[in-house]
Structures are given as C-alpha cells and as structure tokens.
Amino acid sequence: MWNEREVAAFLESTRGNRFYALYYVALATGMRKGELLALTWDNVDLEAGVIYVRQSLAELAGDRPRIGDPKSASAHRRVPIDPSTVEVLKELRQQQEEEKRVAGAEWEEHNLVFCTHLGRPYYRGTVWWAFKRAVKRSGLPYIRFHDLRHTHATLLLRQGVHPKIVAERLGHSSIKITLDLYSHVLPDSQSEAVKAIAKVLQTNPGLQAVCKEPNSERKTQK
Questions:
Q1: CATH for 4-184, among 3.40.50.620, 3.10.620.30, 1.10.443.10, 1.20.140.10?
Q2: Segment 52-108, tens digit of pLDDT
Q3: N or C: which terminus of the chain carries fewer CB neighbours within 10 A?
Q4: Domain spans of the chain, in order of start
Q5: Total-model pTM
Q6: CA dist list (Å): 159 to 59, 118, 135, 196
C-alpha cells in the first residue's frame, strides 16, 4: 500500500494519462476494478456527490468484457465522493463528449464512465498493463491495481475513520472482514483505552477513593 506522499506523487505523475480519472476514483472510493470498469453515468450523481455500485465487469481469457452483478449482495452500495473527485469526473465527461463527436458512427454507446475512445468497455488486462507501466514510470514501489483499494482503506483508518464506515465504502458484508484485513494499521486501541480510563479515574475523586480503599485495608491488617 502507498502512503499519502506516494499517492500524491502517483497522481501527479499520471496527470494527463488516459487512465488518470480511473486511478483517481479508485483511490477516492476504494471500488474494485470490475466495479469501476462497469460504472455507468446513470449511477453517478455529480450534483449530490454520490456513486452507486450496482454492477461489475467480468471476463474470461480471450472473451469480450461482460457486465454483470457485483461480487456479493453487500457490494451493492452508495459511495459518497468529495468535490475534487466530482471535478475529475466532470472533466472526464467533457472529454468523452469530444471523443464521441470525433468517433461519429464508430462510437458504441454503453454509457460507461471509463471506456475506450470508441466507447467500448476496457479489458481488465488492458487496465492492468497500463497501471503497471504508470507505476514504473512514477518510480514508486510497485503495487497491484487492487492495492489502490487497500490504500484507500488504510488511509481512512489512519485518519481515524470508524472501521464500520470503511466497511460500508468497501462493500464488505461484515465489519469483521475489515478489521481482519486492516487491524494492523489501526491505532493502538489498548493504549488509548488505558489513557481513557486513567483520565476518568484522575478526574473523579469518588472513584479515586474507591480504588485506594483496598490498599488502605491491607495496611491496617498488617
């Protein structure tokens, strides 16, 4: 996974790249590659700043990309997005309108957010190769495209976002899955618990008296 500095460096190095918007939205939402490649404009509400995940792209070796249901029932979800991501998507839509005009009759209308210059779905392998080249050119440590999803989750958790919220964004069926995957990046919760209870005891004279009482009894018995 990348840290904040590496994420910023990657986005800067890919600005102007055809897949820039794809990389940006992947990092901003934690969506799976198949979910991103099957995303259609009718599932993007730019006014409200929300993406609805309702389908996923799947393919077999040599087959044409096929769009179907997401990975699981919990993968159907609502993912709010920030204003910067909204702007990236608005620019992408303008770019697509120009490509559609240039392509003319060759354009295939699938209403896809991320598509070729002729409107066709991308092969997952095509995106993988493009990402691999982009990472190499950036000079950053190599990660898989799927690790953009892990990076999204890790950055949120490090910022103190509750694991349940992260689980909802990722489409996990249970918060347990999120905790099992990312517990190693969570703050030291035991340390925080110790600090919290110490603060309570130190600011409550009544509790302090109760806590000291057993020690006093032992001294009396001696």
A1: 1.10.443.10
A2: 999 998 876 566 778 877 767 768 999 999 999 999 999 999 999 999 999 999 999
A3: C
A4: 4-184, 189-221
A5: 0.81
A6: 36, 40, 25, 19
